Amino acid sequence: MKRKNTSFLLFFCLLTYFVKAQIVPPTASSSDIYQQLKKLNVLGSVLYIAAHPDDENNGLLPYLAKEKLYRTAYLSLTRGDGGQNLIGPEQGIELGMIRTHELMAARAIDGSEQYFSTAYEFGFSKSAEEALRIWDRERVLEDVVWMIRKFQPDIIVARFPGDERAGHGHHAASAIIANEAFEAAADPNKFPDQFRYGVKPWKAKRILWNTFNFGRTNTTSDNQLKMEVGGVQSLDWKELWRIGWRSKKHA
To answer: Quick one: DSSP state of residue 19?
Structure first.
């Protein structure tokens, strides 16, 4: 009888410790708190849209969120369910859960918010048409329209162009959906059932796409808008590229 009571007491102590560990709030430095207070005076917002975890530009997001103090979010259409896993046996949905937590950790570092659509990453896609067919184009479009209406971004940034320069089908499809949602979110006749849940039509001021020079694909040109995002965060003198690098390690 004594052994049973000891086992129960040990189990109770471990359970209590586990519950406490789950509810301990994250700590914030004085500079973090001050930065959040400064953000109250900044009204700009940016929604970044791509296909997978690790598609996001980890230099641009901390620049927007921590230096310019805009409300910034990354909408990844998938959770990385169909990617490779070199460090464990998890695949499919389980891998998607891991990648989800990785992105949440990355956003905690770079100061942005993280969102997903219902699209499932089914593996390599040869074309945007294939990706949109398997994903259910209308359903994913509705997800992104909802996110735009809910988040109300001033600017939308697509990571890729909607053609073969994007690299493969998921990338191009994310750009196609982003551009369609940019228009549809402002149309009161598109997905009107969403209005029952408190959102309203929203017209972002513009949609851009984040050009790149990677591998054999160079989508940059001299007449494009350019920003220097590799400087030092003015509030606590942290180098922005280091913030991006740390978030990339988590994603």
So the answer is: H
At residue 197, the 3 state secondary structure works out as: helix
The conformational region for residue 176 under phi > 0 = left, psi -120 to 50 = alpha, else beta, is alpha
Query: If you write DSSP's letter for every residue of 70-113 in order, what string do you get?
Result: -EEEEEESS-STTS--SSSS--THHHHHHHHHHHHHHHHHHT-E
* CA 66 – CA 238 distance, rounded (Å): 10
C-beta neighbour count of 185 within 10 angstroms: 28
- The two beta strands, 213-214 and 217-218, are antiparallel
Angle formed at CA 107 by CA 104 and CA 110, multiple of 5 degrees: 160
**Torsions phi, psi of 155, nearest 5?**
-125, 140
Q: Write out pLDDT tens, residues 124-181.
A: 888 999 999 999 999 999 999 999 999 999 999 999 999 999 989 999 999 999 999 9
Taking the C-alpha atoms of residue 77 and residue 82, their distance in angstroms, rounded to an integer, is 13
| Measured CA distances, 173 to 1, 26, 168, 245 (Å) | 64, 36, 9, 27
In this structure, what token pair is assigned to residue 225? Answer: 């808008």
DSSP 219: -
Question: All domains of the chain, ordered by start, with CATH?
Answer: 45-250 (3.40.50.10320)
Residues whose CB falls within 8 Å of the CB of residue 137, separated by 6 or more in sequence, listed in order = 177
Burial of 198 (C-beta count, 10 Å sphere; 0-12/13-18/19+): exposed
- As a whole number of angstroms, the distance between CA 84 and CA 72 comes to 28
